[in-house]
Structure formats: C-alpha cells, structure tokens
Amino acid sequence: MKYHWIIWGLLTACSGGGTGGETALAGFDGLHGEVTGLGVTPVADLPTQGSATYAGLIQLDLPIDGATHTFEGAFDVTLGFDAAGDPVTGTVTDLASDAVSLTGTLEIDNGAMNQSAVPDLDYQFTADIGGALDDSGTIYTVDGTVAGDFYGSQWEGIAGVAFGDITQGVTVDIFDGTFVGERTP
Questions:
Q1: N or C of the chain: less Cβ packing under 10 Å?
Q2: Spatial separation of the C-alpha atoms in residues 70 and 97, rounded to whole Å
C-alpha cells in the first residue's frame, strides 16, 4: 500500500515540470539522504510516552498560475507518542519556488500514530495538511495528507510524502511532495 502512494506521487510529479533551483534542491536532497540513510526506526523501538519535535524542509509540487512549480518551505511538526491528545501537529511556512513566493501557513493536524505499522507496507504516522496560500491576491486552498516514518536508532529523523487537492476558485487540481526533518532539542 505504501508504495502505491509513492508511485502515484512520482507519476504526478513527472507530469509537472517543476522549476525548483539547484541550490534549494541540493539542500533538500542532502538532508533527505542524510535522514533516510539512517534506516527506518522499528516500531518496537519507538517510545510509548512523551513527544518529539522535528524541523526540516518540505517540497510540494503545486499547480500555481497554470503550471506546476516545486515549492520548498519550512516544515515543523511535533509527534506525540502518548495515546491521549493530538499525536501529530505542525505547520508549513515560507513556501517559495524560483519564480513565486506564497504567503500563508499550512496547518498539520488530526494526526494518528500507527504503532503496528509494517514499514514496507504502512507509514508510522499520518496527518491532515491544509490551509490557504496567497499568490499575489490569488488564493489557493490546500487539503491533503502527510504520511511518514521515523528514521535512526533513536528516531532522530522523519521523512515521508504529502499529497492531496489544491483548489483555486472552482478549479480543483492535485499536488504531491515530500518532507524531511531532524529532531530538535
């Protein structure tokens, strides 16, 4: 099931023609390679109490102004391991491509931890992502999902995918992307 979303993401990303800059992509790719190179944390090694906060980057392929552009921004999320409360919350801010900077914040909430995830089949956590983005007065509404896994022997990183709908007026399109973060002290 997990790889169906990845394949869907790759197929939709290929239809775009993103315009992300080489410097921004090298930074994201370097961090992504560093975190995922640690290997997925086994579910049995995840804590059952407390929380961890992660800061990193997200890249979203968004159809803005008729063309798909790769936007990179700040990705901050807190993941709670307790059974009570909202286990996944956070924000996405400062989304920009080479040509366009978007204002607005995407909220990450309504999350769930999957304590019985099989890493090759399931993600260890999921959450909603949504909000309004402003492109010089044109408002785009994002409604989607983030899904990811923990990485490292001490769950020092997270990485995963994002996908969903983006609406401008009566026009609805799809988006996808990836995120990566490192645990903050």
A1: C
A2: 6
- Give the domain extent around 68: 2-41+49-183
Q: Residue 157 carries which DSSP code?
A: E
Number of domains in the chain: 1
Residue 153, classed as helix, strand or coil, is coil
Q: Is 33 left (phi over 0), alpha (psi -120 to 50) or beta?
A: alpha
Whether 4 has a pLDDT exceeding 80, the answer reads no
Task: Please report which residue ranges of 20-179 form alpha helices under DSSP H.
Answer: 22-36
- Check: CB of residue 94 under 8 Å from CB of residue 106: no
User: pLDDT tens for residues 121-137?
Assistant: 999 999 999 999 999 99
CATH code for the domain in which residue 69 is found: 2.40.160
Contact predicate 149/35, CB 8 Å: no
